[in-house]
Amino acid sequence: MIRFDHVSKRYATGGDALADVSFHLPAGGIGFLIGRSGAGKSTLLKLIACIEYASRGQVLIDGQNLGQLGRRGVPYLRRQMGIVFQNHQLLFDRSVFDNVALPLSIAGYPPREIGRRVRAALDKVGLLSKERVYPVSLSGGEQQRVGIARAVVNRPRLLLADEPTGNLDPELSVEIMSLFRQFNQVGVSVLVATHDLSLVERFGHPLLVLQDGRLVHDGFAKRQRAEDTAHGQG
Amino acid sequence: MARASDLRRGGRRRSGQRGEMDASAWLDQHRAACTLSLRKLLASPLATLLTAAVIGIALALPTAFFALLHNVQSLGSDWDGAARISLYLADSVADAEGAALAEELVGRADVAIARHIDRAAALAEFRELSGFGEVLDSLDENPLPGVVVVHPQAAATPDAVAALAAELGALHAVGDARVDLQWVQRLHAIIGVIQRAVAIVAALLGVAVLLVVGNTIRLDILGRREEIVVVKLIGATDGFVRRPFLYGGAAYGLLGGALAVLLVTLALGLIAAPVRGLAQLYGSAFEFSGLNLDSALALMLCGMLLGLGGAWLAVGRHLRDIEPR
Question: What is the ipTM of this complex?
Answer without folding.
Answer: 0.88
